[in-house]
């Protein structure tokens, strides 16, 4: 990239350091989820349902969604809502034979001028992708569950050394969302997390504080927005 690009804007504060060994100018410009006019798809509602977010890739959803369903069933409280991004994922969800009372809702990207309200939730079981970031910024307490192909996971463990999979956890450097990976994502473990999220004020308070720290870390820097950065590049 240093060969082909004049400069690069990035949306996570840790990214400039990733290019420190190159000559490429890299600048953090803030995360778009905190941009003016952006309305997130989810919000924290302590009286709301449990949110289940198995992801956006069919193979991953097929592995993760049954775990989330089992965790919610073991919890045994409150209704659950699943947000899905596409028709293909909706079909994958239906293949898991979810309970009839489970609500399956499409993810709606809400921006300025759209009146649809975010989906409120008291707690979340989520995969490690983009929607987990939405939940973290909204201050919804929860946990991450992830299950990869066994061989892929084994190879990944050998090649990649990171403390966390969740984006918010990586940025904060701590487990805002405890991670239950592969066989650790048992129904009992996920149910225990949901009980802690729903019934313990200390967990809710800690999540709110972590969400505020995350928003501060991802907010646009004093140098301006992504548009300001682009303007400086073309001057």
Supply the key terms.
single chain; alpha/beta; six-stranded parallel β-sheet; Rossmann fold; 235 residues
What does this structure look like?
With 235 residues, the chain is of the alpha/beta class. It folds into two domains: 1-30, no CATH class; 42-217, Rossmann fold (3-Layer(aba) Sandwich), CATH 3.40.50.2000. 41% of the residues lie in helices and 16% in strands. The chain is built from nine helices and ten strands. It has helices at 15-18, 58-75, 87-95, 130-138, 150-159, 167-172, 187-199, 201-218, 226-234, and strands at residues 8-10, 26-28, 42-44, 50-53, 80-84, 103-106, 119-121, 123-126, 142-146, 179-181. The strands form three sheets. The chain has a six-stranded parallel sheet with strand order 6-5-4-8-9-10, sandwiched between helices. Strand 5 (80-84), helix 3 (87-95) and strand 6 (103-106) form a beta-alpha-beta unit. Helix 2 (58-75) packs across helix 3 and helix 2 (58-75) crosses helix 7 (187-199). The model has no long low-confidence stretch (mean pLDDT 87).
Number of H/I helices: 9
- How does the overall form come out from the CA principal axes? globular
The number of E-state strands comes to 10
Strand order of the largest sheet: 6-5-4-8-9-10
Radius of gyration: 19 Å
What's the gist of this structure?
With 235 residues, the chain is α/β, with parallel strands linked by helices.
């Amino acid at each position: 990239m240093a060969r082909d690009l004049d400069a690069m804007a990035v949306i996570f504060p840790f990214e400039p350091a990733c290019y420190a060994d190159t000559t490429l100018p890299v600048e953090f410009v803030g995360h778009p989820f905190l941009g003016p006019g952006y309305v997130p798809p989810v919000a924290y509602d302590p009286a709301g349902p449990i949110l289940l977010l198995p992801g956006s890739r069919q193979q991953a959803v097929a592995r993760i969604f049954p775990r989330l369903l089992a965790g919610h069933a073991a919890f045994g409280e409150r209704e659950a809502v699943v947000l899905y991004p596409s028709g293909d994922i909706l079909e994958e969800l239906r293949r898991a034979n979810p309970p009839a009372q489970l609500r399956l809702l499409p993810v709606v990207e809400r921006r300025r001028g759209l009146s649809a309200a975010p989906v409120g939730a008291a707690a979340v079981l989520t995969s490690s992708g983009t929607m987990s970031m939405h939940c973290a910024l909204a201050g919804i307490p929860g946990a991450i569950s992830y299950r990869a192909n066994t061989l892929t996971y084994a190879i990944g463990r050998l090649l990649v050394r990171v403390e966390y999979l969740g984006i918010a956890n990586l940025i904060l450097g701590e487990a805002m969302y405890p991670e239950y990976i592969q066989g650790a994502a048992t129904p009992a473990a996920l149910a225990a997390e949901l009980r802690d999220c729903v019934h313990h004020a200390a967990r809710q308070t800690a999540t709110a504080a972590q969400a505020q720290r995350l928003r501060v870390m991802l907010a646009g820097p004093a140098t301006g927005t992504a548009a300001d950065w682009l303007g400086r590049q073309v001057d």
